[in-house]
UniProtKB/TrEMBL annotation:
SUPFAM superfamilies: MFS general substrate transporter (SSF103473). Keywords: Membrane, Transmembrane, Transmembrane helix. The gene is yicJ. PROSITE patterns: MFS. One of its GO terms (molecular function) is symporter activity. One of its GO terms (biological process) is carbohydrate transport. InterPro entries: MFS_2, MFS_dom, MFS_trans_sf. It comes from Flavimaricola marinus. It holds the Pfam family MFS_2. One of its GO terms (cellular component) is plasma membrane. This is Inner membrane symporter YicJ. The chain crosses the membrane at residues 12-37, 43-65, 77-95, 107-126, 147-167, 173-194, 222-251, 271-290, 297-314, 320-340, 377-395, 415-439. PANTHER family: MAJOR FACILITATOR SUPERFAMILY (MFS) PROFILE DOMAIN-CONTAINING PROTEIN, MAJOR FACILITATOR SUPERFAMILY DOMAIN-CONTAINING PROTEIN. Belongs to the sodium:galactoside symporter (TC 2.A.2) family. Residues 1-446 form the Major facilitator superfamily (MFS) profile domain.
Length: 449
């Protein structure tokens, strides 16, 4: 049975709420620790990494439990409904550090609520990803669903990256998180309601955890894609983690360029995210078409190569006093990032089908847990890597939002958000051609062992 447009769009809507939280945790937590609480950047990166590694540990458990859940609303919806509440409660809490807590107490407070928030995120993201393989087995429908998802995700990026920093600057971090919390919950709950009549596999899996894991691990193309998407995510997470610092130290608004007024009204960081979102939205239909013409993998490799070229061009322009030029480059960055956002999410449910068709087991939750594993590891490692690089080159933390940095530290920041991510994306493009495609062809010739 074909999905309706409402069902495709409804599935994609949940990602708007999910992405707002993802952007907040990638963009603001490290900056909050270093620029507001005065935590040394190396320690702040380690704290963020520790919490996100804990988040990785919960993925298999939630995937296993959601596969075995049996309710009148299906296997996934109850997890998403409850998880949305847990996620926003933790997000608001982590920025609500009581005054005069002291640095050790502040660190413990932020880490504790960050853990709660990431548990809620896992409760939403794992079942949500599993639905992509459950509600349709049509590869073209999945591409259309993912385009809707990325369109809504782009709105989430706009809210998380463009609106929240401005709100945080004017109202405070906790107040900003409180303002966007209802949007996060509403997007996820409305998505559950709009997809309530979509096809679903109601029968819970009876497999034990080890048997589930074995079936997933035997799908070697899927395992390769998990690793490669994690590598891509590391590049993007480095850019995201470093961007708040770049907006302060590498991009100077002189007030005499076309978008200076917008930069002053929104803050430079918000303007750059808005430009990025415009590019991402404009590119979604293009990547769907290119996936049909070049194959999904061919379009993804093209997108990664264009992304590398864009990052190299951005490196040649930084530091910059032309906020308009940089915003234009960020529009192009959003367009190239569309391939990373959309195409892998359209590929991996196709690989789930292979296991289900050959074994009869519907374990989309187990696949979804491992799919997010690579991304979460990358997102956990990125703040640690960035913090270590900046600390090595003498980055100075502050409680005032900005302080003087050495040229060496600024150069390290610039490379961390341009040339280093470009090299990582190049590695993933090579892996797609040299590792993933041969494994896929081999699996297509021979069934799972």
């Amino acid at each position: 049975m074909k999905l309706t447009t409402i069902e495709k769009a409804g599935w994609g809507l949940a990602d708007m709420g999910v992405v707002v939280f993802v952007v907040v945790k990638q963009l603001l937590v490290l900056a909050f620790l270093t620029s507001i609480l005065g935590v040394p950047v190396g320690l702040a990166g380690a704290i963020t990494t520790f919490v996100l590694i804990f988040d990785v540990i919960t993925d298999p458990l939630v995937g296993y439990l959601s596969d075995r859940t049996h309710t009148r609303w299906g296997r996934r919806a109850p997890w998403m409904v409850l998880g949305a509440l847990v996620m926003v409660a933790g997000m608001i809490g982590l920025f609500s550090v009581p005054p005069d807590t002291g640095q050790a107490g502040s660190i413990a407070w932020v880490a504790g609520f960050f853990v709660i928030a990431t548990i809620g995120f896992t409760m939403v993201a794992i079942p949500y990803g599993a639905m992509a393989g459950e509600i349709t087995q049509d590869p073209e429908e999945r591409s259309a669903m993912t385009a809707w998802r990325m369109g809504f995700a782009s709105v989430g990026i706009l809210v998380g990256g463009a609106l929240i920093p401005g709100l945080a600057a004017s109202m405070g971090y906790a107040a900003a998180a409180t303002v966007v919390a209802p949007l996060i919950v509403a997007a996820i709950w409305l998505s559950v309601w709009l997809t309530r009549k979509a096809p679903r596999i109601a029968q819970p899996s009876s497999l034990a955890p080890r048997a589930m894991a074995r079936l997933v691990l035997l799908n070697r193309p899927f395992m390769a894609l998990v690793v490669l998407y994690g590598i891509m995510t590391l590049a993007i997470a480095l850019i995201t983690a470093g961007l708040p610092f770049a907006a302060i130290y590498l991009i100077t608004d002189t007030g005499d360029t076309l978008l200076s007024g917008a930069a002053q009204a929104l803050t430079t960081l918000s303007l750059l995210f808005a430009a990025f979102v415009v590019g991402s939205i404009l590119s979604q239909a293009v990547w769907v078409i290119l996936s049909r013409l070049l194959s999904k993998v061919g379009a993804l490799v093209l997108g990664l190569l264009l992304y590398m070229a864009l990052l190299y061009g951005l490196n040649t322009q930084l530091p910059s006093a032309d906020v308009t030029l940089i915003a234009g480059l960020f529009v192009l960055a959003g367009m190239t990032n569309g391939a990373y956002q959309q195409i892998p999410w359209a590929i991996y449910p196709d690989l789930m089908d292979v296991t289900r068709n050959e074994t009869g087991e519907a374990i989309e939750g187990a696949f979804s847990a491992l799919w997010l594993f690579g991304q979460k590891v990358a997102n956990a490692v990125a703040p640690l890597v960035l913090g270590a690089i900046l600390a090595l080159w003498g980055w100075e933390e502050t409680t005032q939002g900005r302080t003087e940095q050495t040229e060496a530290a600024l150069g390290a920041l610039q490379m961390s958000i341009t040339l280093v991510p470009a090299a990582i994306l190049g590695l993933s493009a090579i892996g797609l051609v040299a590792v993933y495609l041969p494994l896929l062809r081999r699996m297509q010739r021979a069934p799972l062992a």
